[in-house]
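If your schedule permits, I should be very grateful for your opinion on a structural question. I would ask you to consider whether the tokens describe a fold that such a sequence might reasonably adopt. Thank you for your consideration; the sequence and its tokens are set out here.
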Amino acid sequence: MQDKEEERSLINVEKKLSADGFTQDFQVKGGRLCTISTESSKTYGPEQVTIVDFYRFEGESDPDDMSILYALETSDGVRGTISSAYGTYGDSDALDFLKQVEDLGKNLHKSHK
């Protein structure tokens, strides 16, 4: 049986999300969510994105070493993740974008489980 810390590692959460269909990697460029893919490149505005879930991770030895992983779904059904450092070292473009999504009330409540 896994202990709670191992279960909550970033790698294990990413594996579970991938198994649940969150296979696309996203990034934010120019205020829009973009797919990171060689075969196609799509972009989405905050109104086209729903936050399905999110996970926070703290570094073992340094509380400032925090990250957050978001599971997202777009209006055309693309499911994927985006991660960022949290706090001082955060990706301000990504965090600003996700704040806009939250402000639109576009967050589900862990319905992918």
Remarks:
- The chain has one domain: 4-103.
- The first helix runs from residue 4 to 7.
- The mean pLDDT is 82.
